[in-house]
Design brief:
The protein is an alpha/beta fold and 531 residues long. 50% of the residues lie in helices and 18% in strands. It contains 19 helices and 16 strands. A 6-stranded mixed β-sheet has the order 13-12-9-16-14-15, sandwiched between helices. A 4-stranded antiparallel β-sheet has the order 2-3-1-4, sandwiched between helices. The protein has a 4-stranded parallel β-sheet with strand order 6-5-7-8, sandwiched between helices. Helix 4 packs antiparallel against helix 5. The N and C termini lie far apart (54 Å).
Length: 531
Amino acid sequence: MVLRLRPDAFRAWTQLCVQALSATRAEIDALNVFPVPDSDTGTNAYLTFVAGADAVAALPDDVALADLVRAHTDGLLTGAKGNSGVILSQLVRATFHDLSLDAAVEPADVARSFRAASDAAHAAVGRPVEGTILSVARAAAEGAEHAVESGAEARDVFALAAASARVALAKTPEQMPRLAQAGVVDAGGRALVVVLDATERALTGRAPEPAAHHVPRPVAPAGDDFVEGGPGYEVMYLLDADDSEIPALRRALDGLGDSLVVVGGERLWNVHVHVDDVGAAIEAGMQAGRPYRIAVTHFADQIARQRGEAAVGRAVVVAATGAGLADLCREAGAHVLEFTRDRPVDVATMLGTLRSLDVAEIVVLPNNPRYVGLFDAAAKQVRADGVRVAVIPTHAQVQGLAALAVHDPGLDFDEDVVAMSSAAAHTQHGAVTVATEPGITMAGPCDVGDVLGVVSGDFAVVGHDVAEVAGAVLDRLVSPAAELVTLVVGDGADDDVAQELSRRLRAERVDVDVVVYQGGQENYPLFVAVE
């Protein structure tokens, strides 16, 4: 069977990788004992692939495959987090560099791309170590080459490469004593296996056998550092530099510390190293070119923050769309991250916001199903600093308003979170929007310009009049136990629709209170909440 790469399939693959890493993030974090046991490899791999998928999702539907691949690999490179994230970005970059994007992909092409990826990742690491993601990548390349020799088709070459990677992952404790002592497989290698398994599933439709891994035991850090005698800082930065400057940069950084990884090309590089002399690591980058987006983590400080005196107070962080909704949340005392369809909230902004709050406790209301996993990942990194963070999985803006309404900073943190979670969960939510393209919904087919009614996240009504569809949505949400209805009017929407619904409710249900807000949200003339 001929294998051709298509833009729609590529887009789907980027999302499948994100979903797979999201599902295994906590497991991979728990496996993390090398090079530093800071329990963040799964989170870093997830955030790296989120950056790549977001770069693809931001492009129009008619973009060519080559441009999608370039956006994805650049997104991975610039958004790579941690040692494993940087190596994974290089593996993907090298793989697609050697694959044909405008012709049928032959089995030999697949094997060649796997070998190129393994070689590139190995070359990017200052001091390669066996029993790591590099060993797993090399095994995948060897598996692909053996598959070609046996006459396998291109899709099956991917599958056999993934199978070889799973076998190699199980052997990593035999190659590294630290893994054997902890009773785990290599975390970075596990992340690579998750990506390869997702790729196999995308290409063949088969769900591979789960990779063998061990239940991790806690590994206590020695002394005040994560690794006794190891460097105290992680330094990462992007670098604008000529390719000819990179060998000298590698030599300079290799002499300063360990865990060195330098990946990229065409004047865009991602640099990662563990050092004691942060200034020297940054100066080496300045001598090579222009370093930017510099990030420094002091390993000992992470422990000190957990042992030292905690900050006080509690903050609520809300993702909101629409100026009116954002103002409502601010009036309730929340810190607001505003987003639109064209200007989503990225992980870096989420993490930066959480870390900028000088408080002991944070409650997060994502108010969008897409943001729940991202905030979870950001929260995990902030928890490592000793801050208590609870992410309440609100999927709708009106759920966030309901949670904010019962927020009480005077309560114990857990009690406050339970109350807010309960308020959000018991809020029935709906919306009205307009179709921008033809399609099939749970309520039947729709054409461009049709009015769609959303109930609890699913399309439940298709019509032609906003007022009629809004009424139908309200009818489905209002139950005999309803006490409060909230109507949030969108940007440019007709206020008469909300006012008419309000009059009708007051006439039919005198026991129900009605509140109308000007939300200013895009694309949705009306949000509806029933409590």
